[in-house]
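User: Could you check the structure of this?
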Amino acid sequence: MQVTVGDYDENSHLNCAEVWKTFI
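Assistant: Sure, the predicted structure tokens are below.
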């Protein structure tokens, strides 16, 4: 899953956090 600033939305925000948690 690729996360970009352009895809930053309320729902994407939650997914983004989950993805970043995996990276961090």
